[in-house]
Recover the amino acids of this structure.
């Protein structure tokens, strides 16, 4: 299926969609009219060659970076070029390709930085409603400990985040995003550089999030993972949406095979 074949029904059920996103860096075009929709309640993979613009698209959709043009909708709300905190309030959170833990803080503290409902920042609350602030702190800490338990990081809660392994840092990224109870989660290569056992685990965590109703868009190079857990695939090449569909359909698409799958299949058979 080509991008022009996206049905009205699919768009109607989109948790997140974008149209004609463009972005250049000093004259170099990184994203060149990317358009796609992410079906609600499903796991969608965003795949494509290195430099295709996947991370830039995630940066733009999450409000971490401004686009040069194009629109974005969360449900039916136009959120084009909103700030990241406004996008987060709409229930969209993201993780980073290169983990961005606060290394000097503990694992637990990393989860307590600016959770969604915290009113403790407000001076009014600190002076006039200290009980409320304390209660919220306690509830947030409890929730953070539960999240750490879920993602296997509870025993490491008092360790400095910088002491974690690469895989544990990926889990911390996911934990931080989940802490905000997102409706939509964008994961930028959540399994890159992670050992096979942990890949399996992270795949399970992502499926659990889907079972809870979270819509997921994940950038992923590992096609075995895509095949196992993703319902829907978007192929990005040279900043454009080349095709969308199921991975099995895309394997039959000559343009996709030429642009990306051929290269990935060759690489895996050479191993
Ligand atoms: N901040 C930046 N400044 C300049 N160029 C950038 C910047 N970010 C990305 N680019 C360029 O934009 C293009 C798209 O990069 P992007 O990181 O979005 O690709 P990607 O699909 O995520 O690649 P990968 O699979 O390697 O992570 C690349 O040519 C990259 O060099
Ligand atoms: Mg990237």
């Amino acid at each position: 299926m080509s991008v022009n074949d996206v049905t009205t029904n699919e768009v109607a059920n989109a948790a997140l969609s974008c149209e004609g996103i463009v972005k250049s860096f000093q004259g170099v075009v990184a994203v060149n009219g990317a358009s796609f929709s992410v079906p609600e309640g499903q796991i969608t993979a965003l795949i494509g060659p290195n430099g295709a613009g996947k991370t830039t698209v995630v940066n733009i959709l999450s409000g971490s970076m401004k686009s040069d043009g194009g629109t974005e909708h969360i449900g039916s709300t136009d959120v084009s070029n909103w700030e990241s905190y406004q996008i987060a309030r709409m229930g969209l959170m993201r993780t980073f390709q290169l983990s961005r833990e606060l290394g000097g803080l503990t694992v637990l503290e990393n989860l307590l930085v600016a959770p969604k409902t915290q009113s403790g920042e407000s001076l009014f609350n600190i002076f006039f409603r200290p009980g409320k602030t304390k209660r919220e702190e306690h509830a947030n800490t409890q929730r953070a400990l539960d999240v750490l338990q879920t993602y296997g990081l509870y025993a490491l809660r008092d360790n400095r985040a910088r002491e974690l392994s690469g895989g544990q840092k990926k889990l911390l990224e996911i934990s931080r995003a989940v802490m905000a109870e997102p409706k939509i989660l964008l994961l930028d290569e959540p399994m890159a550089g992670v050992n096979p056992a942990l890949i399996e685990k992270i795949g399970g965590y992502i499926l659990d999030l889907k079972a809870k109703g979270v819509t997921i868009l994940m950038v992923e190079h590992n096609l075995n993972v895509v095949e196992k857990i993703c319902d829907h695939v978007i192929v990005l090449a040279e900043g454009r949406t080349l095709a969308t569909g199921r991975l099995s359909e895309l394997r039959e698409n000559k343009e996709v095979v030429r642009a990306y799958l051929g290269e990935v299949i060759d690489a895996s058979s050479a191993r």
In short: The pocket of magnesium ion (ligand 2) is lined by residues 54-55, 97 (CB under 6 Å). The first strand starts at residue 14 and ends at 25.
